[in-house]
Amino acid sequence: MNAGVLKREKRRVRERVLALRDASSMEEREAAGRAIVERLLALPEVARAKTVMVFWSFGSEIDTAPLLARLHERGARVALPRIVEGELEARTYAPGDPVTVTTFGAAEPSDGEVVPPEEVDVVVTPGVAFDRRGMRVGYWGGYYDRFFARIRDDAVRVGIGYAVQLVDEPLPAGSFDQPLDLLVTEAEVLRFER
In the sheet where 189-191 sits, what is the strand order? Predict the structure, then answer.
């Protein structure tokens, strides 16, 4: 699949799945989000993790604030991604630390210490759509795919999303798209072979 076709196919998937996600009521999303956080925190990989990078949610995404707080309460070193010169950089974060809202609506740590990629044990990963092979379609830019290339091979890549974001057909993917190890929805936990 050439780059132009791949880009168009991913755009088509984004539009379709975002429309489904956005059509869910706030109450449905909140209930599903609570279930996803509980399932994620129950994973043995997350329970034993010393350093967990979590994204700052925006729009109709799962609210990650409760997850950030619970991980911090457990004593994990929590990091948020920050885009620096076109690449994701993990920065330490504790609830209440100052953040800067980006142009697309997420927030990044205003300061915090840089966490070397090799020290991240779990990356909680956003996505617009996920498939049953462990592939995801994000928003744009390939930031997480490039970040995955810099973390340890045994670091765990966990996608979180609502069940409506899980599609049955294989998602369009290029050679640079990196698979997840797990996907957590309110309905199930999927494990993938990498």
Answer: 114-115, 87-92, 77-84, 51-53, 122-125, 156-160, 182-184, 189-191
pLDDT at 4: 83
Domain spans of the chain, in order of start: 3-191
**In this structure, which CATH number among 3.40.640.10, 3.40.50.620, 3.40.50.10420, 3.90.650.10 belongs to the domain 3-191?**
3.40.50.10420
Residues 48 and 25: their CA atoms lie apart, in Å, by 34
Amino acid residing at 68: L
For residue 97, pLDDT beyond 70: yes
Average pLDDT over residues 152-165: 97
Q: CB neighbours of 14 closer than 8 A, spacing ≥ 6?
A: 128, 129, 137, 139
Does the pLDDT of residue 33 top 70, yes or no? yes
Q: Report in angstroms the alpha-carbon separations of 123 from 15, 17, 21.
A: 25, 22, 22
Residue 104: which pLDDT band, with cuts at 50, 70 and 90?
confident
Gap between the Cα atoms of 158 and 87, Å rounded: 19
Q: What digits encode the pLDDT tens for the residues 37-52?
A: 999 999 999 999 999 9
Q: Where are the alpha helices (DSSP H) in 92-193?
A: 143-148
**What is the model's pLDDT at position 1?**
65
What tokens appear for 172 in the block? 């369009």
